[in-house]
Amino acid sequence: MFVRTQRDNFESKVVTPGQVITADTQYMRGHGTYLNEEESSHISSVAGVVERVNKLITVRPLHTRYTGNIGDLVIGRITEVTNKRWKVDINSRQDAVLLLSAINLPGGVQRRKTEADELQMRKFFAEGDLLAAEFQGSFNDGSTSLHTRNLKYGKLRNGSLIVVPPALVQRCKTHFHTLSCGVDVTLGLNGYIWVSKHSSKNLDELDPEAIYSNDNEPVDRSTRETIARVCNCINALSRHFMCITDTIIAYAYEASLKYPVKDLLKLEAMEFVTTEVRHKLSVVRSIY
Amino acid sequence: MCIITVLLILISLMDGRRANELRKIKCKPSVLSQADGSAYIEQGNTKCLAAVYGPRETRQKAQLIHNKANINVEISLAPFSMPQERKKRSKSDRRLLEIASAVKQTFEPIIMTNLFARSQIDIYLQILQFDGGTIQICINAATLALIDAGIPMQEYVCACSAGCHENHTLLDLNNAEEMADTPELTVALLPMSGKLTLLQMDSRLHVDKLEPVMNLAALGCKEIYQTLDETVREYVKDLFQKSSPY
């Protein structure tokens, strides 16, 4: 392990563009930093918090677009259908690419793509469709690719999308959650969150034709209200720049029951919900 | 004492500041929820709102640059921004286009565009109230909005103007002072390294006066930097505290 030669006094320090982080040249330059012309000191290029992993120094800005990491779950929207691929908006610096060969075609995992599939690509995903996908990798020219080769991923239906700053969604073991109030929440690491009606179907018994269907199932009024309430809770959390996890959403949901759904858009209701969540989190922390 | 001098003294009295004093600055980052980064700045009675979108997919393929990001700046002047005349200016107003291209040229070498190949960064600036110093406030607002958007740049860019009237150097001219035929020098610089990125003057100034005027403007820039930096630090600290899970 890296031996500290001097006390690191820069970790979790707030820095702004142009500020010298350290004049120690043994460190490596990470994202959000650059070396000055004499290559003698590390300078921050963004406003954020300094992080150090062994010898690598990075500065993490808190309010920024999504930068992909392999294996991340993201939620995206199709912007373009082109030759053998889709362009997907994932709130990143460029639209990601979803290749026709990187999706599960109806009729079994083992099926290969044919020319007929190329001609009817819009049957699978058309412009404006939402989908959950996994971040597959990035290339030299800065473009990125996605895949949906798992029945967990694919087209999103029966719900509502909400956009939050990507920094608020933390990387977890799973990003598919079913809340106790009976709705499913998919937390995309790119800050797109999908709140939908609970689907009780087992992944194995899913109808292969139905995965690319554009029709919503019937959603009853109380479920719609619950979805709207969860969306408003997430919106309140993001307005107050609080982390978003399944437990925090559940706390916010509990606290929000005092108000009717539409009142949650008011500032004082948001304030109340977030203070309740903070209070609850501090209580939970004091127990452990 | 000529009429203009008397006028200038009266104006500074109205303004209530000394010749080497900046107008009052108020700034706030992240005022818009939809933009990736945004900022609102007031310098005296000039008010400006900046919104930054990106880096994002290029909207027009012709603008795509294969090894770096394309920066796009648009400036608009609200129809109610001047008290004397209420008129709608088109976005293709020659004067505004000129300022937009100056802002673009100021930021191009400072933003690390090589990190965002084939992307586009849009900067939209709107002057809500006009009282002189358009270009300065546009640059200061754009700096703050770019920092809010988390776009890597070498350091802050701060802009300030200074002028000279009858052997007196004046800092940060307002509209009335600009109108009084004062030679005005606009300076944008990187306050830490002291590098210049913009130097603009539309009228004639005696060469002996150039140095004191430029030094004064540079001092003004550094003072603006202090204000912006304090605001950004406070803002980032606040976000960091709020977002830490427990």
* Termini separation of chain A: 30 Å
* Overall helicity of chain A: 10-25%
User: How many independent structural domains of chain B?
Assistant: 1
Sheet bearing the most strands of chain A, described? 5 strands, mixed, barrel
Report the sheet-strand fraction of chain B: 25-35%
Low-confidence stretches of chain A: 1-7
SSE arrangement of chain B, N to C: HEEEEHEHEEHEEH
Q: State the largest interface.
A: A-B, 39 and 41 residues
- Shape call of chain B: globular
Structural class of chain B: alpha+beta
Shape of chain A: flat
The biggest beta sheet of chain B, please? 5 strands, mixed
| Strand runs of chain A, count | 17
What is the alpha-carbon Rg of chain B in Å?
19 Å
Low-confidence stretches of chain B: none
Distance between the termini of chain B: 67 Å
The number of helical segments of chain B is 5
Regarding quaternary structure, what we see is heterodimer
The portion of residues assigned to helices of chain B is 25-40%
Q: Regarding CATH, which class of chain B?
A: Alpha Beta
Mean pLDDT across every amino acid position of chain A: 90
Written account of the structure:
- Chain A has 288 residues and is an alpha+beta fold.
- Chain A contains five helices and 17 strands.
- Chain A folds into three domains: 48 residues, RNA polymerase II/Efflux pump adaptor protein, barrel-sandwich hybrid domain (OB fold (Dihydrolipoamide Acetyltransferase, E2P), Beta Barrel); 93 residues, Nucleic acid-binding proteins (OB fold (Dihydrolipoamide Acetyltransferase, E2P)); 132 residues, no CATH class.
- In chain A, the strands form four sheets. A five-stranded mixed β-barrel of chain A has the order 8-9-10-12-11. In chain A, strands 1-6-7-3 form a four-stranded mixed β-sheet, with no helix packed on it. A four-stranded antiparallel β-sheet of chain A has the order 14-17-16-15, covered by helices on one side.
- In chain A, helix 3 packs across helix 5 and helix 4 crosses helix 5.
- The N terminus of chain A is likely disordered.
- With 246 residues, chain B is α+β, with helices and mostly antiparallel strands.
- Chain B has one domain: Ribosomal Protein S5, domain 2.
- A five-stranded mixed β-sheet of chain B has the order 1-2-3-5-4. In chain B, strands 7-6-8-9 form a four-stranded antiparallel β-sheet, sandwiched between helices.
- The model of chain B has no long low-confidence stretch (mean pLDDT 90).
- The interface between A and B is large, with 39 and 41 residues.
- Chain A: Keywords: Exosome, Nucleus, RNA-binding, rRNA processing.
- Chain A: Belongs to the RRP4 family.
- Chain A: It holds the Pfam family KH_6.
- Chain A: It is found in: Nucleus.
